[in-house]
Amino acid sequence: MALANEHFMKLPDNYLFTDIAKKVNTFKVVHPKAEIIRLGIGDVTRPLPKASLEAMHKAVDEMGEASTFRGYGPEHGYDFLINAIIKNDYEPRGVKLDPDEVFISDGSKSDTGNIGDILRHDNSIGVTDPIYPVYIDSNVMCGRAGVLEDGKWSNVTYLPTNMENNFVPQIPNHRVDIIYLCYPNNPTGTVLSAEELKKWVNYAIKNDAIIMYDAAYEAYIQNPDIPHSIYEIRGAKKVAIEFRSFSKTAGFTGVRCGYTVVPKELTASTLSGERIPLNRLWNRRQCTKFNGTSYITQRGAEAIYTPEGKSQVRETINYYMTNAKIMKEGLTSLGYQVFGGENAPYLWVKTPNGTTSWKFFEQMLYEANVVGTPGVGFGPSGEGYIRLTAFGERENCEEAMRRFRKL
Amino acid sequence: MALANEHFMKLPDNYLFTDIAKKVNTFKVVHPKAEIIRLGIGDVTRPLPKASLEAMHKAVDEMGEASTFRGYGPEHGYDFLINAIIKNDYEPRGVKLDPDEVFISDGSKSDTGNIGDILRHDNSIGVTDPIYPVYIDSNVMCGRAGVLEDGKWSNVTYLPTNMENNFVPQIPNHRVDIIYLCYPNNPTGTVLSAEELKKWVNYAIKNDAIIMYDAAYEAYIQNPDIPHSIYEIRGAKKVAIEFRSFSKTAGFTGVRCGYTVVPKELTASTLSGERIPLNRLWNRRQCTKFNGTSYITQRGAEAIYTPEGKSQVRETINYYMTNAKIMKEGLTSLGYQVFGGENAPYLWVKTPNGTTSWKFFEQMLYEANVVGTPGVGFGPSGEGYIRLTAFGERENCEEAMRRFRKL
Asked: Positive or negative, the Cα torsion across A393, A394, A395, A398?
């Protein structure tokens, strides 16, 4: 008989954002007239850059004429986009990449979820805690995370980031095979200095580990000393895969485009000690189980690298970062301890008086009609925090601050 | 140390269409003036339906205004598209589906490749032979296919379809857990009658097996007695997952959209005998490792179900099927044995005088400057056949037939 993948059954049935939606709906039933401000889910609200819209209109037109029609594209993406990425996202930061080291995809969630396909299921993993849930859930699904014991997965090393360590994860005192790092961080909105990132690269080199580096929020970095790419650190190409996304950079959450860099010098081992280039494995994986990203989407993404596109992207990011500033200043002036929000669109707020994340979530909802995300939903070390996002409308951010004053 | 997934190393390095491209390039170097006609890769050439173009332009405009902007969509797709699919693709054929049984994706290649995530890696598989390579390769990657011995995978049951059995795969005399069926068939272009399909559904019910039914070419069926969906067969919802694509139906190979139906009554077993609904597992898989299909793309797909869209799709399919007719009649009149091409855009041509697939491929290339696909590239039972596609320009199909006369 056909057998199901039982690892799926280990996953808790509840999903953070579904739980939140349920609680918000319950509130709405009882308070139908309340005007709720949503600062919970990390989705953008500003329209796409005009340059992308124009490029996509043009691409749609091309698909309407036999002479310019495009069928199957390359699984790893069109050269025009790959070259624009290398030239604009990497060369100015001193990072050299070959076109076949960049893989265009339909987004970082797919790639961070699917990357595990190319690695053995018994590698151990390490994650900063709190964390974007996909990293762990995708590893649970293939058995790599082990079993859930007291809220933690047995084959996962948790690396707490919190007030006490200034949100700098400490190098573990044992070896792990695969380490997930996300900087600027979701959910805490904090960043890692070049010096701290270097410790991780060196750890990976020394321990023959692989770093999965999620840089989906790099466009929000304001401090010129903070690295945008892990490849700015010497030796990182030997040990790191980097994930990038157009979702938050250019508002592509509903358009779907991202890319993953798998350097050719990066290898993993076979049981017998042979070194295998992971670039080749990821290419084979994508050629077999993926058929490329929409041509129209790729033209839209390319356009953000034009002078107009760059300026439009900057304007949108400034809008969100001004939201973050308003909220951070507002909350700080009210006596809250607020982290992040300076190089990332997320604010990580300490709940007052040791309140739990969920309790403060409900207090915000019922007393201020503002929705945040309970920090504990991102992992045990998130307990006692609330995540607020800066992706809302300006007036909602301002109104939310007025309401916090009454809390 | 981080260990690579060694199953990838079992995959032969050569890939059918890469090998073909190399051979064609070699020919071009020596014969730079030859005008090559490509009837090899199954990619479409006609522009998108006008209805889809208009819908996509409108959707791009919506993404340019804050009031109509769409961010993250539902992972399983928008209701507007799911409802259009159920109403147009299933209801008229007597198949009732709930909206949460239909999962929109970026294409059938992703879904047929990823579906294995939700099943144990030690299920046995059965495939018709010849076959679309993704079914096997994706199973090799997770170890489910076993090891390659004399050109066959040890954990795969091959079900030959050839002239001798009139391209009707025979029910195996032992049980397999997962069976891949693709009808209308790629590469042979043949179809399965309701009576034959029923045998497979009954086999799956009796053996507690799961059928992966790839119906990517159903829009090409001309004979009203041939089932378009496996769910037209009683009991199929208990045992079958169906894959559909807009690639060949509406020219979406470069736009990327398809869908997968996982009925709620379909279950697989745990080792302890508990029944698990696969709909829940696939939903969890998609919510974790996929983030929805482009809103713009989904609007484009929805538009093919409007009266204008339907008529434009029909026109394009008629164009390709007229190509198929011209080629089938042309080759038959020259004495070739030609299969398929009546309910599918593929012609499966027996090579003359027992020539091998690759030898005839080269003869076609060098003597007629026409590129086909060697049948053996799709599996051992494809030896002695060539696949030709009807997706080319009309004049190229006609010219190809003139050149065949000289062969």
From this structure: positive
